[in-house]
Design a protein that fits this description.
By secondary structure, this protein is of the alpha/beta class. It has one domain: Metal-dependent hydrolases (TIM Barrel), CATH 3.20.20. An 8-stranded parallel beta sheet has the order 1-2-3-4-5-6-7-8, sandwiched between helices. Strand 4, helix 9 and strand 5 form a beta-alpha-beta unit. Helix 5 runs parallel beside helix 7 and helix 8 runs parallel beside helix 9. The longest helix has 18 residues. The chain is globular and about 45 Å long. Bound molecules: adenine and zinc ion (ZN). The site of adenine has 10 residues, from loops.
Length: 352
């Protein structure tokens, strides 16, 4: 796995890699490597309309949100059998473990899944991926099916799918992603209401390509407990105050924001401003394979923007608190974190 460590002192690089980490916003499909999609497309006889892996990889490089969604949607067409999901889930466990990520919450794009598969069959395949992954790698992952906004009509079926998986102990919540423009939160109240009444936790992408209004909607009409991205909350001081007062967490993904043009390249990422205002933020990779990043690289990026390891570590403790993990899991992960702290000389001062 590629870690961009340009110009960072060796001790910081090592600390960022070794530090046990928590990630709460990462998409299974967006974490799947271009090569894996290419191989699956070949196996399943899906025509990507490219002549070579190189051409497919260059299609992965995008400039804006619209193109990103095209890449995402096209890649998913390669996933044609339940076993393909078992495979990408097991791969995902490996990738998280390689980065010392000990706890994750991962989105799975359910609007596409429910179009293609019988519910029991795909849940069995997901369960198998979870079993294989957790047997092999020391990482706990909780899954959150999400509705793709552009597929408004899929919402109740996704909610049903999420509830069925939740009742089998495979999922913990319901999310929503995809294009905010033209698909406001208000369109999805029914699915969220149903999920909530069945005990699922709620989260929504908002305030990424749209402004504060979209975040207010996610909170007030969907009941979102955390917000995916939410960086545009800074456009509304009242919203910032509301997030602080109600401890609503933002799942921040810096590289994703730069890659999709939400934040201009060369500008500092506003996560510092959000933290200074008292907003709880977590650090995430979103779609690491598609943005050529990883959680470790997100740490490098923030170290380059003036964060230190101690601060990043504390953000992990906070992330665990705001996670949807059950108390037993939280206690186990806390033990692992405490062990790490005890046994390391951590947080040496930054090199000049
Ligand atoms: N689905 C996967 N990544 C996403 C993002 N950054 N925004 C909205 N939907 C997504
Ligand atoms: Zn996302």
């Amino acid at each position: 796995m590629l870690f961009d460590r340009n110009n960072l002192p060796a001790n910081l690089i090592q600390q960022a890699i070794n530090m046990p980490k928590i990630e709460l916003h990462v998409h299974i499909e967006g974490a799947t490597q271009a090569e894996t999609f290419y191989e699956l497309a070949k196996k399943n006889k899906v025509d990507f309309g490219v002549e070579s892996l190189e051409e497919w990889k260059s299609f992965f490089e995008f400039k804006d949100f619209g193109h990103f969604l095209q890449v995402y949607t096209k890649s998913i067409t390669a996933l044609k059998t339940p076993e393909d999901y078992t495979h990408i889930i097991t791969e995902f466990y490996r990738q998280q473990a390689e980065q010392n990520i000990i706890y994750s919450e991962a989105y799975i794009s359910a609007s596409f899944i429910i179009q293609k598969f019988d519910t029991k069959e795909i849940l069995d395949a997901i369960e198998k991926g979870i079993q294989q992954g957790s047997e092999k790698y020391k990482v706990k992952i909780n899954f959150i099916p999400d509705i793709s906004r552009e597929l408004v009509d899929s919402q109740m079926a996704v909610a049903g799918f999420a509830i069925e998986g939740f009742n089998r102990g495979l999922f913990i919540g319901l999310g929503i992603g995809g294009p905010e423009q033209g698909f406001p939160p208000e369109l999805f109240t029914e699915a969220f209401k149903k999920a909530k009444s069945n005990g699922l936790r709620l989260v929504a992408h908002a305030g990424e390509t749209e402004g504060a209004k979209s975040i207010w909607g996610a909170i007030n009409t969907l009941g979102a407990e955390r917000i995916g991205h939410g960086v545009r909350s800074l456009e509304d001081p009242k919203l910032i105050q509301y997030l602080v007062d109600n401890k609503i967490t933002l799942e921040v993904s810096p590289t994703s924001n730069y890659a999709l043009g939400i934040i201009k390249n060369g500008d500092m990422h506003p996560i510092r401003q959000l933290l200074d205002a008292g907003v709880i933020c977590t650090i995430n990779s979103d779609d690491p394979a598609m943005f050529s990043t990883s959680l470790v690289q997100e740490y490098f990026l923030l170290l380059k923007q003036g964060f230190d390891c101690k601060e990043l570590y504390k953000m992990n403790l906070q992330a665990l608190k705001v996670s949807f993990a059950c108390n037993e899991t939280k206690a186990k992960i806390t033990d692992q974190l405490e062990n790490y702290e005890k046994n390391r000389i951590l947080f040496e001062p930054k090199d000049k």
